């Protein structure tokens, strides 16, 4: 008989034993446990048909229809399982730990597998993830205006031993209207949160966790309410880097893209920049004067950042003056500065 595991046990065993999600491909794509493989017992269309039968004719009729649909696939399921788990140990789950995973567990046990089931299914896993964010230890936010190199500094801090979350890296987006340029497709919101939760469980609760200052949305994904509330209550170390340094970084990061693409991005913030600035930005793009374009866009982003900062009542913000945009050097200075505040 398959052994039932709670989410924590399931994830721990999943480090060495294959995890298999038997939900449909559509369910899997919308959100799944990082590292899990998809072996759907029903196709997307079959699940709809079985669900409709359940609503109209009841459970018994739906089960019979399900058996008719799944029957011809049984041998193939076992063959696939042997490829996935040649040692014949396998972890299974569906949405709620019900008939789909239970049926597949019976099949694989009949074929000689040792099977473990996730109690409560993917739904229980999602609830477990939310609990992890409720146990958040001390957070510290790395702030700074657009172009300050915050992400690069965080990566250098990580090399120095700091616990770091690169939210923009997980989201495949740099946050601004230009943020999708050069990035891979963004994950679904569920997968973004699942990846974040997986990283969260690796941290030492006795050490602070550093995150970049972000708005609630990063492109098309959202930071969950629990984490975002704690981010807004955490103290901030704000990097104050001269505008000319920030312009250089933006030119380096974005001048490599086609002028037409950059013009399209500028058009998305036309109303916020104002007609005259937009006209200057377009002319500067035509002349390959990317520094002027960066300067113009920063007039909007700097105002937006300061406006957002002023609305954060009660949040402690420590100002750190840095003359140059040198991530490795600035990372060291950030940690030294923060340690001096907590001595």
Give structural notes.
- This protein has helices spanning 7-13, 25-30, 44-57, 59-70, 74-84, 99-110, 121-134, 150-159, 167-171, 189-200, 225-233, 243-254, 259-267, 270-273, 275-286, 290-310, 327-341; strands at residues 3-5, 19-21, 37-38, 89-93, 114-118, 139-144, 163-165, 209-212, 217-218, 221-222, 235-240, 317-321.
- The protein has 343 residues and is of the alpha/beta class.
- The chain folds into two domains: 3-129, Rhodanese-like domain (Oxidized Rhodanese, domain 1, 3-Layer(aba) Sandwich), CATH 3.40.250; 135-341, Rossmann fold.
- The strands form three sheets. The protein has a five-stranded parallel β-sheet with strand order 1-5-4-2-3. A five-stranded parallel β-sheet has the order 7-8-6-11-12, with helices on both faces.
- The radius of gyration is 25 Å and the shape is elongated.
- The termini are far apart.
Poorly predicted regions are none
CATH architecture of the largest domain: 3-Layer(aba) Sandwich
Strand order of the largest sheet: 1-5-4-2-3
| N/C terminus separation | 56 Å
Return the domain count.
Answer: 2
Blueprint (SSEs and pairs):
Layout: E1 3-5, H1 7-13, E2 19-21, H2 25-30, E3 37-38, H3 44-57, H4 59-70, H5 74-84, E4 89-93, H6 99-110, E5 114-118, H7 121-134, E6 139-144, H8 150-159, E7 163-165, H9 167-171, H10 189-200, E8 209-212, E9 217-218, E10 221-222, H11 225-233, E11 235-240, H12 243-254, H13 259-267, H14 270-273, H15 275-286, H16 290-310, E12 317-321, H17 327-341
Parallel strand pairs: 1-5, 2-3, 2-4, 4-5, 6-8, 6-11, 7-8, 11-12
Antiparallel strand pairs: 9-10
């Amino acid at each position: 008989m398959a052994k039932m595991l709670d989410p924590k046990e399931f994830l721990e065993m999943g480090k060495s034993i294959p995890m298999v999600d038997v939900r449909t491909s559509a369910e899997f794509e919308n959100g799944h446990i990082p590292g899990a493989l998809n072996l759907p017992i029903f196709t997307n269309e079959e699940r709809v048909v079985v669900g409709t039968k359940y609503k109209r004719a009841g459970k018994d009729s739906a089960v019979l229809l399900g058996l008719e649909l799944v029957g011809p696939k049984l041998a193939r399921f076992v063959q696939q399982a042997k490829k996935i788990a040649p040692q014949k140990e396998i972890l299974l789950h569906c949405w709620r730990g019900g008939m789909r995973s239970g049926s597949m567990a019976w099949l694989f046990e009949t074929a000689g597998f040792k099977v473990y089931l996730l109690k409560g299914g993917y739904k229980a896993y999602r609830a477990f993830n939310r609990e992890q964010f409720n146990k958040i230890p001390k957070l510290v936010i790395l702030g700074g205006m657009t172009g300050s190199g915050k992400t690069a500094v965080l990566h250098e801090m990580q090399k120095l031993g700091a616990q770091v979350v690169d939210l923009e890296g997980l989201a495949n987006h740099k946050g601004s209207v230009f943020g999708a340029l050069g990035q891979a497709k963004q994950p679904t919101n569920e997968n973004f949160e699942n990846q974040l939760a997986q990283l969260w469980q690796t941290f030492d609760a006795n050490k602070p966790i550093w995150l970049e200052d972000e708005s609630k949305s990063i492109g098309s994904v959202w930071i969950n309410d629990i984490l975002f509330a704690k981010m807004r209550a955490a103290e901030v170390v704000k990097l104050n880097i001269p505008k000319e340094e920030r312009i250089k970084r933006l030119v380096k990061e974005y001048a490599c893209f086609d002028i037409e693409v950059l013009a399209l991005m500028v058009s998305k913030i036309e109303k916020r920049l104002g007609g005259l600035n937009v006209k200057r930005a377009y002319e500067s793009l035509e002349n390959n004067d990317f520094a002027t374009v960066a300067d113009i866009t920063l007039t909007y982003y700097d105002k937006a950042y300061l406006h957002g900062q002023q609305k954060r009542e009660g949040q402690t913000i420590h100002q750190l003056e840095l003359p140059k945009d040198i991530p490795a050097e600035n990372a060291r200075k950030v940690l030294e500065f923060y340690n001096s505040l907590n001595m």
